[in-house]
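[recover] target loaded
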């Protein structure tokens, strides 16, 4: 039995090593087809482990199938654990034998114990091995139902200690493989976030803006927002106060924009907002709402208010640099029209015009 269980242990670690490649991002998504595929892979791992069991009596066998079930429960919740255990349970039922009456309660006990331990033991991550006492509790009930079978006490004494040790060692080793993967994904996410986030305001930076700009399509729009007379703020109140003003404006843009929109620090005292699925006069309304929100908001750093000029442009089947240029031209018009206003760039061509080139018009939103 020891030899078979040791082989099962090696197989368990190898399967989790392959399973680690199904985790591609952090945080790990918990819905969608990728999540369903990952749970299916965990169930498949349990079934493969059952193909190489350690026989202990006629109709009775032990293996480490409970480890993938416990992982799914710990990482994703009891429902995920039940979904992973379901095909394993069906296969064990098909095998039959008297051991079935111990196998099913044992697997259910692992799910219940792991669910309770989720309050104490964190999800698998770096240095997970420090939580080994909790792992023992997760598998403590696995094998206890052997006591209620014929010759149960003798089987329990023979099997339970070794099965518990193998389950715990298997969980710590296999989950350790996954924890290293999670650690790498978490660090990668942090580095990507740092590379794409403006350190002062917490908004997406110019690099993030360029990436999201490429994903714009029909119905989307772009706003450029520039703080009026920002140099005066720095000269009067100092650069620290100027930084705080930028932070407050960034929070205002995030708060006043719609949930599907995103704000960026475009550079210096200039911000950008990408609007998704803008309908009708929505571009004008959002631009004016952002401008008005900044105007009426008292800045703690200066004890007064500041204003912004806003220029917008709707997406069109043009090069992206031209879309940005349109928004910048609208911003330029807002600046030279007296500041503290929002303007939108438009294109129109007169039906009888002899000039084939389109004419540009800057439109002010209607009050």
């Amino acid at each position: 039995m020891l030899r078979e269980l040791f082989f099962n242990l090696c197989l368990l670690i190898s399967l989790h090593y392959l399973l680690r490649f199904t985790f591609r991002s952090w945080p790990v998504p918990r819905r969608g087809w990728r999540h369903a595929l990952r749970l299916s892979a965990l169930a498949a791992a349990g079934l493969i482990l059952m193909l190489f069991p350690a026989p202990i009596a006629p109709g009775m066998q032990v293996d480490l199938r409970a480890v993938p079930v416990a992982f799914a429960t710990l990482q994703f919740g009891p429902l995920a654990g039940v979904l992973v255990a379901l095909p394993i349970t069906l296969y064990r039922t098909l095998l039959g034998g008297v051991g079935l009456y111990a196998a099913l309660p044992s697997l259910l006990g692992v799910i219940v114990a792991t669910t309770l331990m989720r309050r104490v033991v964190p999800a698998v991550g770096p240095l997970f091995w420090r939580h080994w006492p909790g792992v023992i509790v997760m598998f403590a009930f696995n094998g206890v139902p052997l006591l209620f079978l014929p010759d149960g006490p003798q089987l329990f004494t023979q099997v339970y200690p070794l099965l518990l040790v193998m389950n715990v060692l298997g969980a710590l080793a296999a989950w350790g493989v996954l924890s290293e993967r999670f650690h790498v994904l978490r660090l990668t996410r942090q580095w990507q976030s740092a590379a794409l986030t403006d350190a002062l305001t917490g908004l997406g930076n110019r690099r993030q803006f360029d990436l999201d700009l490429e994903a714009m399509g029909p119905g989307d729009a772009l706003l450029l927002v520039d703080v009026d007379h920002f140099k005066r703020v720095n000269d009067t109140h100092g650069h620290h106060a100027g930084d705080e003003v930028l932070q407050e404006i960034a929070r205002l843009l995030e708060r006043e924009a719609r949930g599907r929109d995103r704000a960026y620090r475009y550079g210096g005292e200039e911000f950008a907002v990408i609007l998704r699925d803008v309908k009708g006069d929505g571009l004008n309304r959002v631009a004016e709402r952002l401008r008005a929100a900044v105007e009426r908001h008292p800045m703690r750093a200066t004890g007064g208010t500041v204003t912004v000029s806003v220029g917008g442009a709707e997406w069109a089947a043009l090069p992206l640099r031209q879309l940005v240029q349109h928004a910048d031209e609208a911003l330029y018009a807002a600046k030279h029209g007296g500041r503290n206003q929002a303007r939108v760039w438009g294109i129109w061509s007169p039906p009888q015009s002899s000039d084939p080139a389109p004419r540009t018009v800057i439109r002010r939103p209607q009050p």
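[recover] notes: The chain has twelve helices and eight strands.
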